[in-house]
Amino acid sequence: MRTATPIAAIENVIIMVKENHGFDNYFGTFPGANGANLAHAPNPPTADPNHTHEGWLSRATTAARLQYLESDIPAYFAYARQFTLCDNYFTAVAGPSTPNHLMLIAADSPVIDNPHTYRGRPQQTFNLRSLPDLLEKAGRTWGAYTTGYPFDLITNLGRRNQKNQSAFAADATAGTLPSVSWIYGPSGLDEHPLGNVTDGMDWTVGLVDAVAKGPLWPKCAIFITWDDWGGWLDHVDPPALEQWTDGTQFFPGGRVGCLVMSPYAKRGYISKAQHTHVSLIKFCESVFNLPTLGTRDAASDGMEDCFDFASPPNLAIPQAPVSGASSPPTPGRRKTTRKKPVAKRPVSKKTSKKPTRRKRATKKS
To answer: Mean pLDDT over residues 319-330, rounded?
Structure first.
């Protein structure tokens, strides 16, 4: 039997981006993962921790020392047991949402913090080459299920190829998703504090169900990740690969979880390889035989260790905990029976240097 290749095996890539939770904050208690036990976080969170670049620099002393348990996000733990969980996966920028969202589209960001206006109709856009540009040039399709952000921050993308998040499940069921899809949770279900993390997880499970039970599952790859570190303490520091113009850490940023789900994904596997958000760009470039956007994605891995293209695909679909709702769940929103949480004792962490004042600057080329 011939060995499958990524180009032949994968026809649709789905990047599901949730918000603001580091690895230890979500998966610190997952068996076999490089995690740490922290105090149990309230659900929903009672505060939105500081997750700016300045907050990241002072994280050892100022980050929230809390985490969620399997009882809070049971479906994510179930997916991790069935497929691949990456425990050495880092955001792309040591800062908040916007630079990391740009990295997930363009493998680049001209900012290290959120612009003053970045949601709704942005006052400033950025002239960046992006993965959608490469896909269009190669005759492939792409789409964003969002209400504008973050694609409307990139000048030549704007609001093209966008649909509301509510259209995703129907497109997945009909088998009409584009070659690469990005989907972002609506407010309240994106898991951004102060949102209930279980409700956000339930919404994601509805999307996964729609894909897995539709015609695209045999040749698709789903990545579920979190845009930034969220202001939560993580005991693993990222490698220092790129500095910002003031000499502080730029690339990569804090560690977050990444779930890899596909008939070709390794089952029950914890990836220890070093990955970043840019690895997802590189995966798409490899799958669709695209050129790279620049030196950052050229030097990146492409999530290779998370897949087994030498074996026949395992078409068993993802299984999440049985819903506690009395009526069948609708795609994109389901309810899960919640278990009583068990608190964990906090652990001490090392300190880091205090942040210094910085002037707004541009990244080194």
So the answer is: 54
The answer for residues whose C-beta is within 8 angstroms of residue 73's C-beta and 6 or more apart is 26, 197, 198, 201
CA atoms within 13 A on the CB side of 155: 7
| CA 347 – CA 6 distance, rounded (Å) | 42
Are the beta carbons of 95 and 53 closer than 8 angstroms? yes
Structure tokens at 270: 């914890």
**Residue 93 in contact with residue 103, Cβ under 8 Å?**
yes
Place of tokens 């930034």: 228
The strand ranges marked E within the chain are: 12-18, 39-40, 66-67, 84-86, 89-90, 142-145, 162-163, 180-184, 220-226, 242-243, 249-251, 258-261, 269-271, 275-276
| Residue 234: per-residue pLDDT | 98
pLDDT score recorded for residue 251:
98
Residues 6+ positions from 192 with CB-CB distance below 8 Å: 19, 20, 48, 185
Instruction: Give the pLDDT band of residue 354 (cuts 50, 70, 90).
Output: very low
**How many CB atoms lie under 10 A from the CB of residue 342?**
10
Instruction: Calculate the dihedral angle through the C-alpha atoms of 301, 22, 252, 149, rounding to the nearest 10 degrees.
Output: 90
| Tokens of residue 348, six digits | 């001490």
Structure tokens at 98: 């916007």
Q: Which residues contact 122 (CB under 8 A, 6 or more apart)?
A: 115, 149, 152, 153
Residue found by looking up tokens 């939560």 in the block: 232
pLDDT for 355: 40
Judged by DSSP in three states, 62 sits in helix
Topology of domain 6-306, per CATH? Alkaline Phosphatase, subunit A (3.40.720)
